[in-house]
TrEMBL record:
SMART domains with a match to the protein in the record: ENDO3c
PANTHER family: ADENINE DNA GLYCOSYLASE
Lineage of producing organism: Bacteria, Pseudomonadati, Bacteroidota, Flavobacteriia, Flavobacteriales
Function summary: Adenine glycosylase active on G-A mispairs. MutY also corrects error-prone DNA synthesis past GO lesions which are due to the oxidatively damaged form of guanine: 7,8-dihydro-8-oxoguanine (8-oxo-dGTP).
Gene: mutY
Protein name, entry field: Adenine DNA glycosylase
Amino acid sequence: MDFSKILTKWYLQNKRDLPWRNTVNPYYIWLSEIILQQTRVNQGLAYYEKFIVAFPTVFDLAKADENTILNLWQGLGYYSRARNLHFSAKYIVNERDGKFPATFKDLLKLKGVGDYTASAIASICYNEPCAVVDGNVYRVLARYYGIDIPINSTEGIKLFKKLAQDLIDTNDPATFNQAIMEFGAMQCKPKNPDCSICPFQNSCIAKEEKMVEILPIKDKKIKVTKRFFNYLVLISPMDRTLLNQRKQKGIWRNLYQFPLIETSKEIDISELIKMDELHKITNASNNDITLFNKKPIIHKLSHQHLSVNFWVINSDKEMENSISISDFDKYPVPILIHNFAEAYF
């Protein structure tokens, strides 16, 4: 059986009509790949379209203000992708005269571009036979060949990359790479794939050995950290509020947020009112503070689960460095804070 030919035939009959499949412009392909990292296609599509309208060329992206980029990115999460995108655009413009890297090796020099993204761009734009290996590819290969080596182990990463590279159609690597990713996304899905319509149903080891729901295998997950955030939403008589920019490394760097008190556990209003951190920000009394959400809002990130309370504090004084609530949308904020503002302001 010719795995590549069967896969390509399936792809040509079943592929989705997506805008980045109608171009070999490396800027557009790079943009789509960065957006689609850890993002579903149906969510990423709208962001891709917004970005190519706002920044039709790498020169436009390079000269853009970071806040503008982060604002457009709002809701996608993993904001380091947006910062790396901006950094690399400036590198391409300033160090390469706007010429996009044209080989796998040179693409790896772009910040935020790893093996998978470099392989995708190199194969789609330059016909370089570099196999992509993402979550979809791991799943297809693990099931078809019945491989139970953990995909996130050193051995697994090397094995699956070599296998994908051995299978790639060297005459048309772009189509092969897109086909195997599409097959994993649409046919060989993580849960309850319809094996009865799969073109590989008679040769798939996972189907034969009833391991479809087991493969691929991952090593134990990284421990999730629980954190407790208390946002102080100060409101002045002139409808102004305070926002701070997160400068420290970690989640949401360079995004804006309300003054934050992080605690070791969930607290109530009596505990909040006793905290020195609160009195450094405001002299509000118990009567001035109300809890916006009836129960903590749980916001799940890849390795952190945040338990969040929004404390609304009505101030009778004007605040230094405050902003008008009407200007709130000009500031890039985490989606958690955006959702609060949509509901409250």
